[in-house]
Predict the 3D structure of the following.
Amino acid sequence: MNFPILSTLIFLPLVSSFFIFLSKNENNNSSIYVSLFSSIATFLLSLFLWYSMDLDVPDFQFVEEQSWINDFIKFKLGIDGISILFILLTAFITPLCILSCINSIKERLKEFLIAILVLETLMIGVFCSLDLVIFYLFFEAGLIPMFIIIGVWGGPKKVYSAFKFFLFTLLGSVLMLVAIIAIYWITGTTDITQIYEIKIPKEYQNLLWLAFFSSFAVKTPMWPVHTWLPDAHVEAPTAGSVILAAILLKMAGYGFIRFSIPMFPLGSEFFTPLVFSLSIVAIIYTSLVALMQDDMKKLIAYSSVAHMGYVTLGIFTLTKQGIEGSIFQMISHGLISAALFLCVGVVYDRLHSRLINSYGGLVSYLPKYSIFFVVFALAALGLPGTTGFLGEFLVLVGSFQKNYLVAILATFGVVLGAAYMLWMTKRVIFGDVKNEQIKSLKDTNKLENLMLISLAFLIIFFGFYPAPLIETLNAPVDNLINNYEQAINTTNLVNNDQ
Amino acid sequence: MAYAIVFLPLAGALIGYLGKNLIKNFAEITTSFFVVMSAIFSIIVFWKGIQNSEYENYLIFEWISSGNFVANWSINIDPLSSVMLIVITFISALVHIYSIGYMSHDPHKPRFMSYLSLFTFSMLSLVVSDNFLQLFFGWEGVGLCSYLLIGFWYKKETANDAAIKAFIVNRVGDFGLAVGIFLIFFYFGTINFNEIFRLVPQLSEKQLIFLGFDFNLITLICLFLFIGAMGKSAQFLLHTWLPDAMEGPTPVSALIHAATMVTAGVFLVVKCSPIFEYSKVALNMVTIVGMVTAIFAASVALVQNDIKKIVAYSTCSQLGYMFFAAGIGAYHVAMFHLFTHAFFKALLFLGAGSVIHAFNDEQDIRNMGGIRKKLPFTYVAMLIGTLALTGFPFLSGFYSKDAIIEFSYLSEASFSNYAVFIGVFTAFLTAIYSWRLFFKTFHGTYNNKKVPIEKTHESPIIMLFPLFLLSIGAILAGFLFKETFIGHLNADFWQSSILFLDEIKHERVPIWLLYLTPVLVIISIPISFYYFVLNPNILESIKKTNFPFYNFLLNKWYIDEIYETIFVKPAKRIGSFFWKKGDIGTIDRFGPDGISKLVKMISSKAGRFQTGFIYDYAFVMLIGLSILLTYLILT
């Protein structure tokens, strides 16, 4: 295809943010319309991409290539069935975030919208790049708008949280940068399609894998480098939390699938036990911690860590069910955590408290809100018929084939998941009204209904009929596993010959 | 028609709730009508099955397909599920109708009705599944509806706690079921029932090492599946949620916690009989757990004072009967008891609801008594229910319970002799506690101080009508279907839906055994009447002399307290330990906060070097020079 459709997709939000920047008038409405329009256009464009993709081919499609710095580093883009789902998720969540700003952001709305749109560009860029340097740029640049969002529009401890977020993620990615340079020295290219072909020598794989892992583990976040996430969520404004939980966390999972496994199959195999044990600790440990939280956002943040534990577990099972389950779980968690954070945002806008104690008995006064809240809480605890169930179940099916003990421990996390989610629901939604202010609260308005209904619809629809997503994943995941197994088998053969 | 049976309740739930404001009572009428239709279709399906052995199978669409992990949405009706269909839809329809009267003063009636319908749908999708994943969907779906319905009165703190407890204890069971499914998929490569059942004989010898122990694969699978069944059917150790679940409205207890959902575990074991038959160990386990539950729950029921809790423990105990029947290899008898039990237990619950209604929500039987004249219909209905439950000759419980005891006697399984003993003894206990409930409620003196006896009233006709139909069921279900379920026709009826490797021959039961239980049951009536109505002081003195034992029973063997101490509190304590000491105290302290402190410290120290005085710098240079010189000289 000659038309650079991926570049259009990436830079559409950026260009419109530029327009917002230029607009002089202080009228916020126009900037909302512009950003909403451009983000919806991006979403439609990504839907069109999904529609026009050839799902039977595992190769990258819509590839664009331009030399950028001295022909060494190319600006190379392309997507396959895995990345399109993340692009769709990004493009779907962003308009919702913009809508949520209307209620929650009172100051500097224009700048906030610019930050969100820039962030969208960078996030889509991450999922499209086929060159390590380009990927690194998008991946790290994404930190900046997020840092600003937390640091400027955040709560009382915003500066501490913003720096904690920045420090953690930056420290991890320094090593990744070193690894990228090393890869360039070894292979002479940063184009990942070529690196796939060249196959990095065995002796480098473990070190390089660790370098990438250090970056991805922080972003995922995996235990024990997860502590930035609860703080960041608590302080971030609603839209910031939504993007952070729904999309930024997924970039690391995507990174594992796109880079770690195909580039370093031997390293991946070697470190699988490490990933398994960290994932299990994440699932059990953070679920228990989540049980004791008194702040709704912190609780959801800890539950995110636990859910991402399933993701990392599933990816490194390297089975069809495990990887498809992980990707499905990421999409599903993107929708569910976005929904839960929006829910917290709805009551936060009214009562300005995130503490569980200040609520209770909401169902009598906010019936519609309560229905949404209960539906999303149930989806988060993995009730069959929602996407949350299928992701977890597939991951567990996959991991059982590799290590039954890990799978059983992870399955036990499902029990804990039910405990903390239901306990929170009980304390927030049910029971008697303890706080008199609740009686004067208004139920969700039309805008909030629109956002929450669209999320609830997708969560339930794909829970019953996941085929559109799973079929998109089929070919690339098969390809990924085949290449991995081939790499492992060839090395084993070589070892046997010696 | 099969589609209609399954989807009518769902449609009712949705239409009823969404259209609740259209006209008065819209939700009640719609949901009830749709479920009644579904019940009528079920009866037709069941009847056709008995007559012509015709069953329908449909594949709706593919749910998920990832590699060779494939699961469909399907409707698969076989003799086993047709029995469940009729139990579910029939009881559900009556409970819907009853609820219209029972809940008439509740402002949230539409929500209640649509939950009931939604429950019916989930339960139906469970029993018509052709694979484990859809079964799991229904399994958790009924758990959800049970959670929503137990916590229906959301302002009551106890109701909320009971709801959460029910869901989480069930989740522990679901954990077992899920692991069972993983095992099956890993070794069989499929989760479709028929394909699994076909492969079982080939894998029956396979051994594997699990947690350091040598296990037979089939045994391991069965044990995990059975954990799931124990959770849902409230068997010993996972039973704690069921008595608490009585916090929910009474129609819910009748439908979910007596007739349908709690029998899902029995259904699972019977459905998987082609797997269980290949593992003697697992079957013995099922027998033991069933026996323990039967006698444990009956012993606790003897001393409880809450009318619904007595019936709940009774349910628990009867489920124990069903399990040990399945465990000794008499699956069809287990199903028969499930079938008859549904009628008389739903009858007892709805009757209890009618009594509670009459007393304006009083549930303690010590505050009742002497109202048989005021509630004549309820009295008769409860009498029939009690007679049927205790196994009074020629009522439905008689046929099924005695059959369990007889089959235990005939079975060759290892624990069948104990099962006979436990069966007879529990039948005796059942009679005692049932009559205690009955006499304390309806006979003796009137003990309620809040509601004067003149104010107690018989329930409206809309609540009595279901009682009437259920009474007929409780009287006749055993007699009418005896031959079909467990008699000479049973092989024609069940076909391949239940597998017996070596069928228990139902012949030559000794005469004394045939008479033993009925005689015990009948003589327990005058005994109970004497102790509970005519001369209650004797019992009071026994209670006083055996106080520790009485308390042990009253506090349900202290199992809730034990769980609180060894699971709930430690979980919370570990949670806050990890949070306070792990995240904040270790990771943050030595991670980001530590690093930033370190950097600050070093830079402030380093800052002190730059004093700006030339002699300081000269001094440092001098030291450096001398160190360098020393080094050079030494080498």
Q: What stands out?
A: The radius of gyration of chain B is 31 Å. The CA atoms of residues 16 and 30 of chain B lie 6 Å apart. The longest strand of chain B covers residues 57-66.
